[in-house]
Every structure is written in structure tokens, then in C-alpha cells.
């Protein structure tokens, strides 16, 4: 009789252990987001429309509240990309924020030269993005990205 009781107790303990293991659910990981220029469009008045792609690499949704990024073309400052998108991006997803920019004179010349010559142009983004991971405390993430823009074929005044 005692052996049967121990088997039942052991069996129940095993069932409870398995149920407790299932309770934990998926891992909630917050990773550094990324930002890059998806498209830069030169408007007729000389200002720019800059589509900034924000990538959420976290396993949970994040609310992106503010971005403040210094844009440089080569070594020259083009201006400050600032926005308060209040944009919710799902886990491991991305979305785009469009920011208007009145670029510096040197930046205007650099883009005009690259567009006219059909050449690529190096750029960098440095600054901060404020985001709130899934209703938790707001955090500041540092962005430091370098890449290049190239003229978009068939789209005058557009760099991608």
C-alpha cells in the first residue's frame, strides 16, 4: 500500500511541476531599437522630407514617444531630426516616421551634387530615441548609425 501512495504523490508532484513550467510563458526581452533613413525627398522649396525607419528588435511591443537625431552627410551637419511620433511598433517589427527638415546650406549642396551625379552619399544618425516597452517605464536608447543614400531611379529628388 505504501508504494502505491508514494507513486501517486510522485505523480501529482510531477504534474504540478509541469504545470508550473508552462505558466512562465514566452521570454519578454527588450532590445535596443535601431533607426535609419528609408527615404529622403528634396521638396520644391529646398526643404527635405525624411522618412526615418524605426526598428523594434524587442520581443514585446514598444511605444516610440520621441526621436532626436543629428543627421550628418559625410562630415557636415545637415540638421536635427526631431519628432514625437507616439507610434506603437509591435515585437520584432518596424514602422516609418516622416520628419520635415530645413537642411544646412552645405547639406543642400551635397544632396544636389549626389542627385545630379547619380552618386551615393554617406550619412550618419546620432542621438536618442525615447520609448516605453509594453506599458513599462520610459527608456532612452542611444542611436549611432552610419549608412549611405543613393538616388532612386526614376524618382527625381529622391534618395534611398
From TrEMBL:
<protein>
    <submittedName>
        <fullName>LEA type 2 family protein</fullName>
    </submittedName>
</protein>
<dbReference type="Pfam" id="PF03168">
    <property type="entry name" value="LEA_2"/>
</dbReference>
<feature type="domain" description="Late embryogenesis abundant protein LEA-2 subgroup">
    <location>
        <begin position="52"/>
        <end position="132"/>
    </location>
</feature>
<dbReference type="InterPro" id="IPR004864">
    <property type="entry name" value="LEA_2"/>
</dbReference>
Amino acid at each position: 500500500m505504501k508504494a502505491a501512495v508514494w507513486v501517486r504523490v510522485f505523480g501529482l508532484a510531477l504534474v504540478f511541476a509541469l504545470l508550473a513550467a508552462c505558466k512562465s510563458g514566452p521570454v519578454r526581452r527588450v532590445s535596443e531599437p535601431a533607426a535609419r533613413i528609408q527615404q529622403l525627398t528634396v521638396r520644391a522649396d529646398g526643404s527635405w522630407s525624411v522618412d526615418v525607419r524605426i526598428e523594434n528588435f524587442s520581443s514585446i511591443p514598444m511605444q516610440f514617444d520621441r526621436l532626436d537625431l543629428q543627421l550628418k552627410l559625410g562630415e557636415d551637419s545637415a540638421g536635427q531630426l526631431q519628432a514625437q511620433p507616439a507610434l506603437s511598433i509591435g515585437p520584432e517589427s518596424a514602422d516609418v516616421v516622416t520628419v520635415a527638415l530645413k537642411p544646412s546650406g552645405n547639406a543642400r549642396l551635397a544632396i544636389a551634387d549626389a542627385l545630379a551625379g547619380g552618386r551615393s552619399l554617406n550619412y550618419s544618425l546620432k542621438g536618442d530615441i525615447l520609448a516605453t516597452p509594453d506599458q513599462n517605464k520610459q527608456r532612452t536608447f542611444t542611436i549611432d548609425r552610419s549608412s549611405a543614400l543613393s538616388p532612386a531611379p526614376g524618382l527625381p529628388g529622391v534618395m534611398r
